[in-house]
Specification:
Rossmann fold; five-stranded parallel beta sheet; about 15% strand; alpha/beta; 3 domains; about 350 residues
Length: about 350
């Protein structure tokens, strides 16, 4: 896909853009809702009507009936989810159409369907509950809904697994192996009861005995930002700052999660920073834009990223600029909104509605 802003928007000054964005917001009033994810640039977050993680923003999108135009400053799967959860008269826009998610791309529909067909031998939907992380395409959300499963986020993954195990023996969790594994450990699932499905190998690279004994079948996928963090980063920071508190996202590898003082979603990380006493030293294992914003918002605390100079940036979140936001707001009638067609929309909504219900 090729995308380029018109010259007028590429060359606009920061002050000009800010004034014009605010003018567009004033003109559209309650018809407009701008949602911004925690990983967005500070200057984009400034213009968001609501700020949150993928779960919170999905819930907000589902509740906002008055807004006719929802501009989602995030990545593609988030805008898709917002479209699925909103009414027909509402339109959802993604300011930068190139903002995707590498993790979501690690679970392609054809590969998941092939795995599911193989798993029919082990009971299929009678014994195995599919759980799709929010970071998946609408097509895979629809697959999940079609087979009785639900969507989860890092905020509600524990509740999602509890819900699943109350109904079926096994969970098929995709696409983030680390979130699935860390959540399983938190619920007391033994490491030997979790297996990794490698979509590049026949039968996922697993023996039939491994699949039969497994309680959680994890898809081989990860977040390239959160796998930057290593145990040595934790040890180095603790050596340098003896009183440091280390908090990380559950998409981090388990050996990092195991050493941290706190583990949770982006909403958890934000809350932790806000409620920590003045003078606290906090190292965070997550995306750099969130960390930088926490440092700016809490100058009475020392807040920095866990891995030193690696700069864990989500390039896709970083794609969205003030230029993109301004262009979207000034050309709403001329740009294509994000639309999920039927029957995919209804099937995906089944899984998303269950996500909202269990939380």
């Amino acid at each position: 896909m090729y995308f380029s802003l018109p010259k007028e928007y590429r060359e606009a000054t920061s002050d000009d853009m800010r004034g014009r964005i605010q003018a567009a917001r004033d003109r559209l009033g309650k018809k407009l809702l701008i949602l911004t994810h925690h990983y967005q640039r500070v200057e984009v977050v400034e213009f968001g009507d609501r700020l949150g993680d993928s779960y919170a923003l999905s819930k907000i999108a589902a509740e906002q009936k008055e807004a006719e135009h929802i501009v989602f400053c995030g990545v593609h799967f988030m805008a898709e989810s917002a479209d699925i959860l909103t009414d027909e008269h509402q339109k959802v826009y993604l300011p930068n159409p190139l903002a995707g998610c590498p993790m979501a791309d690690m679970a392609e529909m054809a590969d998941v369907l092939e795995a599911w067909e193989y798993l029919h031998e082990f009971g299929g939907a009678e014994r195995i509950m599919p759980i799709s992380y929010m970071n998946t395409t609408a097509g895979l959300k629809a697959f999940t809904g079609r087979n009785g499963g639900l969507i989860c986020t890092s905020s509600n993954a524990v509740n999602a697994l509890k819900w699943a195990f109350a109904r079926r023996e096994k969970v098929f969790f995709f696409p983030d192996e680390n979130l699935g594994y860390n959540t399983g450990i938190k619920l007391g699932v033994r490491p030997e009861e979790m297996v990794l499905w490698d979509f590049s190998r026949d039968g996922g690279g697993l023996t039939k005995e491994q699949v039969e004994k497994a309680r959680i079948i994890l898809w081989k996928g990860h977040c390239h930002v959160h796998t930057n963090f290593k145990p040595e980063h934790v040890n180095e920071v603790r050596a340098q700052y003896p009183d440091v508190k280390i908090i990380v996202h559950p998409e981090c590898p388990h050996d990092v999660v195991d050493l941290a003082d706190g583990v949770g979603s982006t909403a958890f990380l934000v809350k932790y920073c806000r409620e920590a006493p003045a003078g606290s030293t906090i190292a965070i294992g997550t995306e750099i834009n969130l960390i930088n914003r926490m440092a700016l918002e809490h100058p009475d605390k020392k807040i920095f990223e866990l891995s030193g100079d690696t700069c864990p940036v989500c390039a896709n979140m970083y794609r969205t600029t003030l230029n993109d936001l301004l262009y979207t707001l000034e050309t709403l009638d001329g740009i294509k909104p994000i639309r999920v067609a039927e029957p995919m929309r209804s099937e995906a909504r089944l899984a998303l509605d269950k996500m909202l219900e269990i939380s």
